[in-house]
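Q: Given only this backbone (538 positions), what sequence would you predict?
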């Protein structure tokens, strides 16, 4: 007999509480779609009414198999649930599921809210009853539950029961301050079940302030809880929330969870976990944490020597799982066979079948290593990686040569006496025997300045003679800049995402001490990659 465990993602709500994180609506949609295809049961989209981008997200929310959930708080004292405008805004998002947070620690009720304990319990009951009466599935996030239970167990239980008895599908025990250790979480969850709330109605919401959020969630499951709340990559306020990117493979691959429980996530979709984790970092313009469990670039990286030679003979010698199960890969020092077979696989994914003994393989690995030492990163810049490989394989036509480029940046007063900025770029290319000079400005149709990289991009793509028809539809969609280490110097790494009229999207990288130069290199790769894809010839 297996029990069903439900996974509840709050990346878009609690995850957005992370310092410096603010998702745009399109980004939220992308994340929601990724969570849904991963197989999460619930996606908490945000707090409609409290945050304009959250409201916009619910208006545009994608159709998901996962239950889209709106978050809010219990009604306030002194008005009915029906007349509480904050609660109404949450219900108006029209989601099938609604999660409301409320107090369960008596000290917070009397000191932070300034209402009586009875009023708070009644607010919980009435709010949940109202949500249920509206035909929605209701969740109650019992804020500060563990601290509250430790202070006054009776009152904490009274709040949890008020929600359960009013019809809440889930009563979620929250370790809001993140300081509760796993053994305490286990004991208190157990006590809640013994007090009459069945485990298959109990959820767990932990924070990572003692770096035990994942362990605390597992302890709650061991005690009988059947819903786990967390975020991708452990994103969240302070030290973060329980990391679903770690919890998911643990639940699917480790005993006793593997045999005792079922989740909505299939073994095949688990393979997309690493990709999903990197996608989030990419949206946040963050360097992926190399040592992240399961999905980090170093999670299955072996240094040269004893480990590496044992790994080649039998991977289980120094690996707790097969990295392919979570879509990660084994990294063994470049020179050996395994490094080459990884590379061949990546090349095959790009449509380049390379024979096992081709000496270009060693060359490509060396080129990558040398470039990475200079500050390049090919993890996301797949198009630049392909060009590097094609060059080594002799499969990259010499489409054109850039003879020179120039960019000027100017700031001056216009005729209305307002300061305006403007960039101008000149690019000279040689195609066959013909030289072409293109000039472009950085102003868009509305007359606003789009900056020097935009001017360069336009000049480069303005007149490529016979190739023009292939590149006319390239659009620069994203531009990320990061200061990184290249050798002993700090250098600038630019990643550019381009898109064409077919919706195809590709990423290229450039590195230089100079941001414009790094951008130009990435732009050049973007154009060259597109010409390769189009099968352009002179
Ligand atoms: Zn939280």
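A: Predicted residues:
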């Amino acid at each position: 007999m297996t029990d069903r465990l439900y996974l509840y993602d709050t990346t878009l709500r609690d995850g957005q509480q992370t310092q410096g994180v603010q998702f745009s609506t399109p980004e939220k949609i992308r994340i929601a779609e990724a969570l849904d295809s991963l197989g999460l049961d619930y996606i908490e989209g945000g707090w409609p009414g409290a945050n304009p981008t959250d409201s916009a997200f619910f208006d545009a929310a994608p159709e998901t198999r996962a239950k889209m959930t709106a978050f809010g708080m219990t009604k306030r004292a002194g008005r009915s649930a029906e007349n509480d405008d904050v609660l109404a805004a949450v219900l108006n998002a029209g989601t099938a599921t609604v999660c409301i947070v409320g107090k369960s620690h008596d000290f917070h009720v009397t000191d932070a809210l300034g209402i009586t304990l009875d009023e708070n319990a009644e607010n919980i009951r009435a709010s949940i009853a109202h949500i249920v009466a509206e035909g929605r599935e209701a969740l109650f996030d019992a804020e500060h539950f563990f601290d509250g239970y430790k202070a006054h167990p009776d009152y904490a239980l009274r709040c949890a029961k008020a929600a359960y008895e009013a019809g809440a599908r889930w009563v979620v025990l929250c370790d809001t301050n993140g300081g509760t250790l796993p053994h305490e979480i286990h004991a208190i969850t157990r006590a809640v079940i013994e007090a009459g709330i069945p485990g298959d109605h109990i959820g767990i919401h932990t924070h990572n302030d003692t770096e035990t959020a994942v362990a605390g969630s597992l302890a709650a499951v061991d005690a009988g809880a059947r819903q786990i709340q967390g975020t991708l990559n452990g994103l969240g306020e302070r030290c973060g929330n329980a990391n679903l990117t770690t919890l998911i493979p643990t639940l699917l691959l480790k005993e006793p969870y593997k045999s005792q429980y079922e989740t909505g996530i299939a073994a095949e979709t688990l393979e997309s976990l690493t990709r999903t984790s990197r996608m989030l970092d990419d949206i946040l313009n963050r360097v992926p944490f190399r040592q992240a469990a399961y999905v980090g670039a170093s999670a299955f990286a072996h240094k040269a020597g004893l480990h590496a030679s044992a790994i080649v003979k039998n991977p289980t010698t120094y690996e707790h799982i097969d990295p392919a199960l979570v879509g990660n890969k084994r990294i063994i020092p470049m020179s050996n066979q395994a490094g080459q077979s990884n590379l061949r696989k990546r090349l095959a994914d790009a449509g380049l079948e390379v024979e096992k003994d081709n000496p270009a393989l060693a060359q490509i690995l060396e080129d990558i290593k040398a470039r990475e030492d200079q500050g390049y990163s090919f993890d996301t810049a797949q198009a630049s990686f392909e060009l590097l490989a094609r060059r080594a394989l002799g499969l990259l036509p010499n489409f054109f040569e850039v003879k020179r480029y120039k960019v000027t940046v100017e700031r001056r007063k216009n005729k209305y006496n307002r300061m305006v900025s403007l960039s101008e770029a000149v690019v000279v290319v040689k195609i066959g025997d013909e030289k072409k000079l293109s000039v472009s400005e950085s102003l868009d149709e509305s007359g606003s300045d789009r900056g020097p990289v935009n001017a360069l991009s336009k000049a480069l793509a303005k007149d490529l003679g016979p190739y023009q028809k292939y590149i006319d539809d390239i659009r620069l969609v994203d531009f990320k800049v990061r200061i990184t280490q290249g050798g002993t110097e700090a250098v600038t790494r630019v990643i550019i995402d381009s898109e064409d009229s077919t919706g195809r999207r590709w990423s290229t990288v450039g590195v230089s001490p100079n941001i414009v130069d790094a951008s130009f290199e990435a732009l050049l790769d973007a154009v060259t990659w597109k010409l390769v894809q189009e099968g352009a010839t002179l």
